[in-house]
Write a structure and sequence with these properties.
alpha/beta; 6-stranded mixed β-sheet; 3 domains; 434 Repressor (Amino-terminal Domain); DNA-binding (chains A, B); LacI family transcriptional regulator (chains A, B); 6-stranded parallel β-sheet; 12 helices; homodimer; disordered N terminus; Rossmann fold; DNA-binding; Peripla_BP_I (chains A, B); Lambda_DNA-bd_dom_sf (chains A, B); 12 strands; HTH_LacI (chains A, B)
DNA sequence: CTGAAAGCGCTTACAG
DNA sequence: CTGAAAGCGCTTACAG
């Protein structure tokens, strides 16, 4: 049996009006509290609504008012914990106003992003929050020009027709490096994400800031990974260890080779005493690779992440990291689209250092 | 400047019709390919659409056709990797048909779930997929009766007005236990989720199936955790270790106390040789706690998870686990709502064992 | 093959 | 304070 055939036709304003003995305009007025309605009439209408189980049809309303109670959210990857924690914050804010969150993943593909944004616009969303694939904001500008408010998420301010919100990555990265330098580290590796992503560039700048500000002589090496993932972090550290003769090359099956036993005295000079990872997922992979090689955290190598996703506190060595105010970032992004009048705004939130157990003074 | 004031008014069918010199009905016909339209006329209309950058307004369309190109998805927790990987599968299927996914988290609260479902229904969604909070499906039935197709996700078949899709948890759990018994394990701990969740009960039944089928004498202990999280898994193993005298109690700050050194001979008899965790997150926490105590995986204790979330392969010891066809589960759930005619269907998919490095023959 | 008209469910000036 | 009517953008019988 086809589902569509089931079920009683739901009640409409017209049905409510008839039952209450008033006009549909009056029903609408009590629904919206727009004009003063007589006490007695209001009660009759409310009783009718109750009796019929009437739920206002959002489509009809949207057609009239021009906007559907929905906000579109376009993210790069649905399975990225940082985005999802931010999405949870947006959801919280949107629910307050009875809005719905339309969520779609672009898989970092600009074409998919364009499709998604246009679909949202065609559906009369109240606004769109987009974590942009790259710096080409053409389609975002296009829908903004069509009157759809957009907020750029985790992205810097763009020319005046769109809002933006992000954490200060540069300052956060500087904090991480200053923390390490403060502990006494002088040989530091920065495992960065791909350079074409804005976050990578900002965090690298912050690393240099931190070093400059410390006034210390720091030996810094930077490795650019292909993505912000655990797999890349693991492979990156593995390459480093192979280079130092501390591990055999990765098996072709992608499963790492068991570590050789290792004594502390055996750690070569080239090995950094601290690794700063551009996000927690990279740090997670790095931790695995270090552990495979029998290198202890933080005794042999200190590790710092970025984001403070939920998992960070649960890792086998709880991770010291730069915490983004992730939930708040999401909440504010949604709020920018809901509080009237909707204007172009730019917000930068401050990250904070969260000390856990993966950092300590360097060995030796 | 308020954003709402910006931008040119977007083109409507009327504008296209005027430019092409035809009626709006004809424009609609070429848009929907419903009736044969003259070749020359079609070209004129298409040119006009192109020139005006016309995008069909989904709200007007929805009001007329009765359904908005959107599917509502209600999950228990937006930051749960299993749900998000499933949501990615739904998103993939929905995008194919230009549908949008409205995603909302109920935080396992029945009241929130009711609100979410009613909101979706009021928005004229094509259908709803819901991962139900508990066994009270009253509101799901309510919207089904109002004509909104619903599919129960990760939930068993309900009485005939709703579709359902899930993996066979019971069979999966049996596989896990049979794998361990096959390796020679006879003392097994099952770290289960809360008993009020259907998954926990099914997986426990599967554990018993596996033991019964093996014909071996197995010493099984079962510990029920408060939730399917890493934190709970970690705490559960920690309690076990404290009970065996292998670890100091957890510090009040929630940070575990450093492990005491431990020799293999020192492992007490009461310690299970294998732990089966009701999901990968629990296994992740268990791994951390074991590592803290200096217990090796798999040499001292074997560990099996459930779900095969992305992280499973990246853990410090890559996790042997029962893989749910998560993406497919999501894809099929969405497909059930999109392929016409929409009928009530029930699907059960089979999980599979994925062997990685966290299981081996027992010590001794 | 094409057009004119009705209508989906709601909100909002406009009269009264 | 309340009602009648117009109209948001589209689709679809119904005529021609």
């Amino acid at each position: 049996m086809a589902i569509a055939e089931r079920g009683a036709r739901p009640a409409r304003v017209k049905d409510v009006a008839r039952l209450a003995g008033v006009s549909v305009g009056t029903v609408s007025n009590v629904l919206n509290g727009r004009r003063s309605v007589g006490e007695e009439v209001r009660e009759r209408v409310e009783a009718a609504i109750e009796e019929l189980g009437f739920v206002r049809n959002a489509t009809g309303r949207a057609l009239r008012t021009g906007s559907f109670p929905m906000v579109g959210v376009s993210v790069l990857d649905l399975t990225n914990p940082f985005f999802m924690e931010a999405a949870a914050g947006m959801d919280r804010r949107l629910r307050q106003d009875g809005f719905v969150m339309a969520l779609s993943s672009t898989h970092s593909d600009a074409g998919e992003e364009a499709r998604t944004l246009r679909t949202f616009a065609g559906q009369g969303v109240r606004g769109v929050v987009v974590s942009p694939t790259d710096t080409d904001l053409a389609v975002a500008h296009e829908i903004a020009a069509r009157g759809v408010p957009v907020v750029l998420f985790d992205s810097p301010a763009a020319p005046d027709d769109m809002s933006s919100i992000l954490a200060d990555d540069r300052a956060g990265a500087a904090m991480a490096v200053e923390h390490l330098i403060g502990l006494g580290h002088r040989r530091i590796l920065f495992l960065n994400g791909p350079e074409h992503q804005r976050q990578s560039r900002s965090r690298l700048a912050g690393v240099h800031d931190g070093i400059a500000r410390s006034g210390e002589e720091i030996s810094l090496s930077v490795e650019e990974l292909g993505s912000f993932t655990a797999m890349e972090g693991r492979a990156g550290v593995r390459r480093l260890l192979v280079g130092c003769g501390l591990a055999a090359p990765m098996g072709t099956d992608g499963i790492s080779v068991p570590a050789r036993p290792l004594t502390v005295e055996g750690l070569p000079e080239e090995l950094p005493t601290a690794i700063f990872c551009a996000n927690d997922l990279i740090a997670f992979g790095a931790m695995t690779a270090l552990r495979d090689a029998g290198i202890r955290i933080p005794e042999d190598v200190s590790l710092v992440g970025f984001d403070d996703i939920e998992m960070a506190a649960q890792m086998s060595v709880p991770l010291t990291t730069i915490a983004q105010p992730t939930d708040e970032l999401g909440w504010v992004a949604a709020d920018m689209l809901l509080t009237e009048p909707v204007t172009v705004r730019h917000e930068t939130l401050m990250p904070t250092l969260v000390r856990r157990r993966s950092t300590a003074a360097p060995r030796g």
